Amino acid sequence: AHGDEPLDESSPPGEDFLARLCVDWQAAADPVIDLGCRLVVLRPGVVLAREGGALPKMMLPFHFFAGGPLGSGRQVMSWIHRDDWIAMVRWALANSSVSGPVNMTAPQPVTNREMADAIGRALRRPSILPAPAFALRLALGEMADAMILNGQRVLPALAQSRGFKFRYETIDDALGAIYQGSGLRA
N or C, which terminus of the chain has less Cβ within 10 Å? Predict the structure, then answer.
């Protein structure tokens, strides 16, 4: 695990199951490069949207006034608003100088505790009840560590260096746009 170390597109892969899976998946695309084709490997963070993805599952406990951080809350969450994700895909397709891995994350990752606090603010609900790591491991098994309890500070260095402009750089801006006028606030 890389912990809080900032990771960009040139950083070495991790060593857990998901990291090995990504390395194998990217290696499977090598024949495309051998044919002389441009290959862009999209590496999305947690995509935030009102419907679908991780956010509705993350906000469910908040509706019951039981929201809070997962595990220690110190793990870093690299996220991206759905609109920025779509814009980045379009940008990568249209920009012929973009090739190889592209980290599709907002430029300001947050800790899980910061994410919980931001969801609480957006929904006007408390965010004080943590979900203990042992309970997550009981519910999810070994995938709890790989998917929830370990985080990575992934930065979109390539996109930023090539001029991509994010619409939602902060978690509060992203969640504010998602929940604005949605009737989800208390």
Answer: C
Q: Where are the beta strands (DSSP E) in the chain?
A: 6-7, 40-44, 46-48, 76-77, 79-81, 100-104, 110-111, 153-154
pTM value surpassing 0.90: no
Residue 11 phi, psi (nearest 5):
-70, 145
Instruction: Provide the 10 A C-beta neighbour count for residue 21.
Output: 11
- If you count them, how many residues does the chain have? 186
137 vs 119: CA distance, rounded Å: 23
Q: Is the four-CA dihedral 46, 50, 56, 61 of positive or negative sign?
A: positive
> Is there a contact between 101 and 39 (Cβ–Cβ < 8 Å)?
no
pLDDT in tens, 149-181: 677 889 999 999 999 999 999 999 999 999 885
